[in-house]
Amino acid sequence: MSTQVSSKPSTAAPSAAALSSLLVFTAGCVAGGNLLWSIYRRQTRVERVYKMIDEINATDPRTPPQELDYGRWMTKTLSRYDPNASDIVKMACRGQHVARWRIPRADFPDGKAGYLKWRKTLYAMHANIMREILEKAGSFSNDEIERVAQLVGKQWDLATDLEASSVEDVAALVFLEYNFPTFTEKLNEVDKMVDIIRKTWTKKMSPRGREAALQLSLPPAQAEIVKRALSSSAVATEEAGKDDDA
């Protein structure tokens, strides 16, 4: 007698273990999808802000447009200095000098008082422009908008504000790597450059930023200036007499 095997698919209900595995798998897919969407959304909104900043800086009348280059140097340096930086720090770095040429130094009196007034006026302008950009970009809370404005407007205490410290470290690194050689040639006053580097080192840079600065490969002339600025006696003297004009 032959035994026939039914070709009909089994209609037995899946086991509880199989259902549990399926639910876990589905939940994992949903969670993974949500995470990827969140990352994509964050990247997209930051890139949108970058684009808006660059569009403004591309109108810099100088050739090449200096602030367009500067903003991109800030982003490049930040990615190396702190790959895990927050969106707030990323946007503050990119917008650090947004539209800076609109308020020339020549519009203010010579001397320290005129210089400080110029800088404060610049900070206020940068903060207002970044507020406008983030509001137009959308997807940002009021707290986020104000935080970015606070960072570019220099409304912070470097001793306690880690995000502000990161932005200032990156700005100092950009100066040393990209602007220092040209600035040195233009100024042509070694003693004054030594003083500028010393103040930048002691008043604006964190220990981590200083460590990163020491890893930079500078031309011999600039490296010698940094060496002089960082001599132990000079730095100790500056640390003992810190003021607010840096």
Radius of gyration: 27 Å
Query: N-to-C SSE series?
Result: HHHHHHHHHH
**Spatial gap, N to C terminus:** 102 Å
Number of discrete domains: 2
Query: Stretches where pLDDT falls below 50 for ≥5 residues?
Result: none
Name the beta content range.
under 5%
Question: If helices are DSSP runs of H or I spanning 4 or more residues, what is the number of helices?
Answer: 10
How many beta strands in the DSSP annotation? 0
- Main sheet characteristics: none
Mean pLDDT: 85
Shape: globular
**What structural class is derived from the secondary structure elements?**
mainly alpha
Description:
Helix content is 70%, strand content 0%. By secondary structure, the protein is mainly α. The chain is globular, with a radius of gyration of 27 Å. It starts with 15 loop residues before the first helix and ends in a 6-residue tail after the last helix. The mean pLDDT is 85.
Which properties best describe this structure?
single chain, 246 residues, mainly alpha, 2 domains, 10 helices
Layout of strands and helices, then pairs:
Blueprint: H1 16-57, H2 66-81, H3 87-94, H4 111-137, H5 142-152, H6 162-187, H7 190-203, H8 207-214, H9 220-229, H10 232-240
